[in-house]
Design goal:
104 residues; 3-stranded antiparallel sheet; two-stranded antiparallel ribbon; 2 helices; globular
Length: 104
């Protein structure tokens, strides 16, 4: 087990079985009045099904904090490494799949 300290001094435990993470190239985000639900999946070429690898459920306040943290980190990344380009996509942030709204 690894323990890391963040800026506020909170110790985080990162179990070995979680530390390697799960690869996901597709996310579906839905919400209710009290929760945001993010399902992370892996889409494989030629397969009709995508298997959900992880589900994260957040309170709306935490979802908004996550959005801010992602925006800040993307800005930092692009400042250091250059713009993130999404192939075959215009300025819109829509997914490169033909999906209904509410999915990312």
């Amino acid at each position: 087990m690894n323990e890391n300290k963040n800026e506020q001094g909170l110790q985080l435990e990162l179990p070995q079985e979680v530390a390697q993470g799960e690869y996901a190239n597709f996310a579906i985000i839905t919400h209710s009045s009290s929760d945001f639900i993010m399902d992370f999946a892996r889409v494989m070429p030629g397969l009709p099904k995508a298997q959900v690898k992880s589900r994260i459920i957040l309170a709306p306040e935490h979802a908004k904090r996550l959005l801010g943290a992602l925006q800040e980190n993307i800005m930092r990344y692009e400042k250091e490494y250059g713009p993130i380009r999404i192939p075959n996509q215009g300025p819109s942030t829509a997914a490169p799949f033909d999906l209904p709204k509410g999915e990312a």
